[in-house]
Design goal:
Pfam families: Abhydrolase_1 (PF00561)
Organism: Aplanochytrium stocchinoi
Shape: globular
InterPro entries: AB_hydrolase_1 (IPR000073), AB_hydrolase_fold (IPR029058), AB_hydrolase_sf (IPR050266)
Strand order of the largest sheet: 8-9-11-10-12-13-17-18-19
Protein name: AB hydrolase-1 domain-containing protein
CATH architecture of one domain: 3-Layer(aba) Sandwich
Amino acid sequence: MDPPGCGLSQHRPACGWYNDYEECIMMMQVADKLGWDEPFIICGHSRGSNLSGLAASVFRHRIRAALLIEGSLMASGCYITHYEQVGLPTGGLPLKPLIPLDRKNRERVPRIFDSLEDAIEHNRTNPTFPKARATAEGIATRHVKKLDDGRYQFTHDTRTYGQLHPHMIYPETNMSMRSNTACPVLSINIRSGHIALKHDYDKFYDQVQTQWANPQFTRENVRPYFDDINATFNATPDITLRLVAGKHHVHSDDPVTISKVALEFLEEKISSAEFEASKLEDIKLSEIGFHDYIYLLPDVSPEAQLEEIVDVAVKSLCEEFTLDVLGQNICVKRWGSKDAKFKAIAWCDEQDNAGSFDRLGEIIVEKMPEQICLIAVDRPGLGLSGHLSLEQWYDVGCEAPLLLDIADAFHWNDPFTIIVHDRAAAAGLMVAGALPERVNGLICLDYVNAASLPSYMYASEMFYCYEEDKNTCLEQPTFSSYTEAKKYLSNKSDRYRSDLVLSHVARRSLKQLEENVWVCTDDPRRRIRSPHPPNFETIRRAVTRIRTPVLFLNSKNEQKDVLLKEKPLQVLRSMQEKLFLLNSTYTTLHMDGSHYMHVDNAEECLQHILHWANSNNVWQVDFGKSKLITARADSVRSKL
């Protein structure tokens, strides 16, 4: 299999990211296309072996054996946690260095060779991974294309050079995932590699010093990587290590030896043994329930209220824009003057659209249009924005950089404020932590858990992402009336939405095709869970890097309080503990109102925001004659 962006496979869309989680699922989709219903053997080399090991843990009932050549079972995960001290060429970085690295790689010009032989020789003499000529020829002939002038151009997507997903596999997650593996695993490594030395720290340290020759290495900061390798192997139930002579591409340089080692292993492990492995349990469903966290429906059903408001009109002047952001159509609404001194981007929850910020925008235009410019965004697949291509998954980490791309599209050179609602908080936290010099304030409305999950749920979430994607109908449902379509929007949400909220959201998510025919334009795949939700460690790293003031404005209502008392979720508590790692001034306010307080209680919500912004020098807004609500006694403001 040529991974996306490599060999003869197509490149990812410009707005997409290359990452291990999605490619692991693609491996299973390839098996599905081939009609492989019975358990099969999976084999990978280097990064591909890490993917194969990942697949063996997620799709445990479908993998009969895993042959991993020159991989580390994702042991490089500790690079992420310790990379500042270690200074290694890491296997995974946080979002901060990824954004400028990605932008740099997009501008790289693919290398051109005068002849095919030059391309082969370039690959053969790679100083990091030297290889036999036959190996280099096999790789180069799939990596170059002949130009009209007779020269050869490298076709490998330049974005793959360091463009890794911001949600890397951390050691704790790695150990948890490996423990799910049911099949026997063979790890073939060269004798001179770091895996071969995993049991001898002195030799391991000397080898790493020689290989990377980095002056930042010390025995202390290399130790975590060494320990991580050992922990990874120990967490895998049935793993066999075989050492061979050769270089990194030993499977191609010396296929006879590798075949012999692999066949001996397979004969011993699977020739006669029966294989039975159950698929992973849906842990999130069993522990938390389908409705995602903490919101109960009120006694009055949404259907009973649907006729109260047929529709709403956006009263105040706003402008609509369709932006081409890395090839993706993103639709936004702008309230206030483009020349306003204070600017903010509003990022909706994954079940809403930019219409959910209409009420805030109306009030801004009514009371202070020359002071604040608010841009609300239809995230990809929602509202009027375009859908992602089928080989991409909707994911908050991949979308987070779009916040910066949108600000760049409007030429916002000065720092701006980010307003996020509910699960969209993860994107705000990640951007504010990645590039604090671009963000002057972060406002989280009814922040719950930033959509993050603990390590023990990761393998299960990946598998059920694959299952839901496979079973999702891509046809958009049609309805005979606008009211019926609104009922659909109400029923498909796991958050209670008043009819006022529904009306604002429906204006952008419902479209009339012809008389008595309405359609919901939201991408049905938006309902599929992410193959790589933010890890607690991902959010922790983002939070500890935030240097801008942060406001957590939460709603208080009886339904929410009752459920939290009856079912205090470990997931929620663990996530909230991360807030205490903030190194910036943060404020927590609670106001009476619904989960959509920025719609149902918009004026009071905005006044809390303005008071906080003025108090923390985020904005300096003249309220004029508008009433200002001061912070309540239950507010908490602290600086660490």
